[in-house]
Design brief:
elongated, alpha+beta
Length: 134
């Protein structure tokens, strides 16, 4: 059995071949959004679910048993489950892969429009020698 240190707790890796189930919907795979204080931390397709064992170590588990989720080596408590003392709480919500990709495309299009506007404004400044009337 292998153990990995995760912020003063040990995460026991029961099997290197452990993989949770991947659920699907009509409109794509299920993804999980982690939200803390109304800000999205990340969106994942395969979160690492953990639960606290009686010996104080975290162990990998299935989604239905999870008390926490690991993000960048840090265990976060999942809202609505048994409390994990000293851990920040996140809300985990499901989003379809299709909806996530749609959001990402819309965000990219918005950035592209902003860049085009900035480039047009820069072109006007260059053409007018840096003087504009507002």
């Amino acid at each position: 059995m292998e153990t990995v240190s995760v912020s003063s707790k040990r995460l026991m890796i029961i099997s290197k071949h452990y993989s949770g189930s991947t659920r699907t919907r009509k409109d794509g795979y299920v993804m999980y959004r982690l939200v803390k204080d109304d800000a999205t931390l990340t969106t994942l397709s395969s979160p690492v679910w953990v639960k606290l064992q009686s010996n104080g170590a975290f162990a990998l588990c299935a989604e239905a048993e999870a008390q926490g989720v690991v993000l960048n080596g840090e265990v976060y408590h999942i809202s609505g489950t048994d409390a994990l003392e000293g851990r920040e709480t996140v809300v985990v919500s499901e989003i379809s892969e299709t909806a996530y990709l749609t959001e990402q495309l819309a965000a990219q299009e918005s950035i592209q429009i902003q860049n085009q506007i900035a480039l047009a404004e820069l072109s006007i400044l260059i053409a007018t020698g840096g003087t504009t009337s507002v």
